[in-house]
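Lab notebook, bench 4. Still working through the backlog of constructs that have no structural model yet. Next entry is a single chain of 534 residues. Request: give me the structure tokens for it.
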Amino acid sequence: MPSTSQKLQKSMRRAQAITERTMKAFLLLAAIGLCSAQYNPNTKPGKMSIVHLFEWRWADIALECEQYLAPNGFGGVQISPPNENIVITNPWRPWWERYQPISYNLCTRSGNYDEFKDMVTRCNNVGVHIYVDTVVNHMCGSGAGSGNSSTCGSYFNAETRDFPAVPYSAWDFNDGKCKTGSGDIENYHDVTQVRDCRLVSLLDLALEKDYVRSKVAEYMNELIDIGVAGFRIDASKHMWPGDMTAFLDKLKNLTKTWFSNGSRPFIYQEVIDLGGEPIKSSEYFGTGRVTEFKYGAKLGTVIRKWNGEKMAYLKNWGEGWGFMPSDIALVFVDNHDTQRGHGAGGASVLTFWDSRLYKMALGFMLAHPYGFTRVISSYRWPRYFQNGKDINDWVGPPSFEDGSTKPVTINPDSTCGNDWVCEHRWHQIKNMVIFRNVVDGQPFSNWWDNDSNQVAFGRGNRGFIVFNNDDWSLNVNLQTGLPAGIYCDVISGQKEGDRCTGIQVQVVGDGTANFQISNQAEDPFIAIHVDATL
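Model written out:
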């Protein structure tokens, strides 16, 4: 068994290695100039989170911005790809058809051009900005055939690489550059394959060509003219960073109608880097923020208490866990891929299907200062596992028999109908989005743990949160760092007028308070902040 000194030396070596990696990343950021505005989400001051309204219709998003997101402090919405995609009927209208473009015309099952423009205008008018999921690495699958089975009715021929609605032709694809027998990516340890061959047979665009770069930039600039605030760049790992820089450099400033003069679009890039492949997320730090997939995978493992992990280990969460620098990271507990077992993280990722643990994970993410936070709003589908795989993971959004998407209906208790989950409307998540806004700019402070799965921390003198993920109750006096007063827990309830519908916590003159959380509680955590006092 290792001695204490051996354990200490191992711990110090790990810390030194992480510090060296972090320092290299920071030096890179200094070289490229982190002040560049594409790292700035352009949210209104004091709004620190966005929500991905996955597969929502534009008309429903416009209403949600006005009626719920703006009043509750959400900074923006990530939308599903708005450009024309192939219509797939076998399987029936899967979610992933949205990731198989036919053109850059703005018509999908979420709505047409006019509905899109109306949504962007109405959301911007109430201070909620729009971030577009942008699919520009590829077009549809190589075996998609030909015809006009697309959401705007545009003709295409996948076999001859003919997409006249853009237009793209065979010259605009990477078929000649890819060296694999299949034309698809066969080895993720071969960097050239990953970037020049087809991702799951999707026709790979030749982004080294200025013509292709110009068509991509033309599409994105049209969206900027309409009023979007930024872009999630899908499949960034499969594009050469230099090619991405080239088309991103062609983008206009954001419209002055809703953004300050000289504002640049917010860029965040989908790069899955769990550490086992040669392509590193740091290669993309020069073009914008990057999705930190380690975040949800690791946090899920800790909160599930797998592999001997415990919440006490979260004291140095963030860069201390080998994550990218906080100023670069776009973080999330789950996304539309990982909640289906795709992408990264596997079974450790927490989702709405694990609602008790999921709310704890989101509570931790929204309270902790690391990264820029995104929550997801999902829909239910009939999961059916065979040999550990959900064979229904393809199922598209709630829809009518003709394939049109069902509207998001709102129930009297503020939850959603028609099989829309609306996690962002769960009061615990909504209130933690507000918590993050209230504590913005405050330091991580007053950490406490019981060397197991009971932990607490503050955000300066603005907020404090306590978790009990152990199998026994918590009863402890803690230093909160908060001013004296009676606080309303925003997890068990919330402040409504001058009363509290949940647990009340009294902070005394020296900043301490008593916290009691049963391990049987529906939500075994308490969060208090200075904007919810009695």
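Notes after review: Residues 1-15, 30-35 have pLDDT under 50 and may be disordered. The longest strand covers residues 129-134. Flag for follow-up if needed.
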